[in-house]
Amino acid sequence: MTFDIDGILNGKRLAISRALSLVERNDTDLIALTDALHGHLGNAYRIGVTGPPGAGKSSLVDRLIEIWRTAGKTIGVISVDPTSPFTGGAILGDRVRMTRHYKDEGVFIRSMATRGSLGGLSSKAQDAADVYDAAGLDIVVFETVGVGQVELDVAEAADTTLVVIVPESGDEIQAMKAGLMEIADIFVVNKADHTGAEKAFRELRGIIQLRLQTADWKPPVVKTSVVKPEGIDDLDKTIQRHYSYLKESGILKEKFRHRQHLKVRDLILERLQTQFWTPERKEIMDAALQKPLDEMPSPVQLMTQLFKGT
Amino acid sequence: MTFDIDGILNGKRLAISRALSLVERNDTDLIALTDALHGHLGNAYRIGVTGPPGAGKSSLVDRLIEIWRTAGKTIGVISVDPTSPFTGGAILGDRVRMTRHYKDEGVFIRSMATRGSLGGLSSKAQDAADVYDAAGLDIVVFETVGVGQVELDVAEAADTTLVVIVPESGDEIQAMKAGLMEIADIFVVNKADHTGAEKAFRELRGIIQLRLQTADWKPPVVKTSVVKPEGIDDLDKTIQRHYSYLKESGILKEKFRHRQHLKVRDLILERLQTQFWTPERKEIMDAALQKPLDEMPSPVQLMTQLFKGT
Fold first, then answer.
1. Percent of chain B with pLDDT over 90
2. A228, CA 20 to 30 Å: which among A173, A213, B78, B101?
3. Which of B42, B146, B303 sits opposite A293 (nearest CB)?
């Protein structure tokens, strides 16, 4: 057993750190860890923070941590990094901007690579969040860069999703906003001291009013400035308001249930693959792909051949 | 049969368009289509164009198309869009900037959603590229926005990957460069008329010289400006040079082989899942997830139960 379940449940730093490494490596013991964590979950509030590069997500999270710490909360951060396909490691490493919280015993920070796990990020981020959750932390933050799949995965793993944008973005950001509309529970117009912040704020509010008229929860738009700092308290209150909404509406429990569903699905996918790829099948596959291009069987023929006898 | 293989092979627009829709929907006929295309592949040169939002990728591709059309080449473009999780459709739709090529009979443009297919983008983009390839087009361009998994998928699906950056990017772009280093065959510093272009150009060249000293192919850095326009011819020549390198070194064939491998792997994954999720198993799963949270079996227990009897 490469993990210390008692250490995790007692919030021991080393045990938590080792468990997160196990999650990241996708170690064979991950299944045992997953099973050991079950029954100790459902206490941590999971917040996803996403948006384009340069939007100031890390600094914003840093400020929020300050407020939460003052309120006595403990926090675990998972920085989701685009992965280098060459080294397999995360590109950014632990975020520089959050270093001042490193010495704080109530704060855990970890970056994770997004590549390599079968179920994609959502499965990995979720396992990592489960470690924090079981360790008794109050808040788990997923922070991620980029647009597309990664953000959708984060939204799936989080209870509340913050979408952070900056006023001076180009037209592709405009388009992104439309796509992010559906995953955002709260919009943050960061760098509110910059030119165009007021315009971005108004535009966004307009779009939301127009598009989400009938929604139970209309994503509020909060202006923040990390430099001043300004609007961070307001953001924190808005997050608390969303938490209450999730709890009272029963959505919080539904999200938990949905995540369990995804986990089962991912576990099954992995086992199916492991069972399928016997040494014999690998050999058939390799041999077929070594043939000259014009003698190579079609992928469908090859698949059919590999499935024969099952 | 929902596709017209003769029409595709004869380059008929309607047949191509319908086949691409079939790929996008991940229709059950996709397997039949894949099989029908086999044996007609390997002629199109596949170019991936990636980089952060706002780098001017579409405009750049637009200019390249101009040059290629003058040289008598036919082109198929696949714009890979971050997908709206809500509608399931692509966010940006067909790119506005390339509209002037719409009426050109030698140019095909299509946007595709990245979400939903099991094997991820690489499998879908590849199937779409295969349609263009079998239709006899000379060049297939994958264009994509974002950072992370999507770009890695595109690099996997392409013979040559262009990474487009802009001079005025923030520090996260710096970090991205490091991650993109390994997937870029050619770097493009676009908007070369902007301040800082020369600096970005020099920095990038410096990093490449330092990090890729022993590589057979050192990614050249090309400066372009779509507005002027400037450097597009140079970029085209650099692309041609990379193509020759791929061909002479045998890497082009290796890439084809690798893509076949991925396709087989994806087909198998899909079939395994389809076989596994019988109505009985779905029922067991649903029943377990309906239970009160504290009575719910752990994901591992549930998986074990579902695998019983197989």
1. 46
2. A173
3. B42
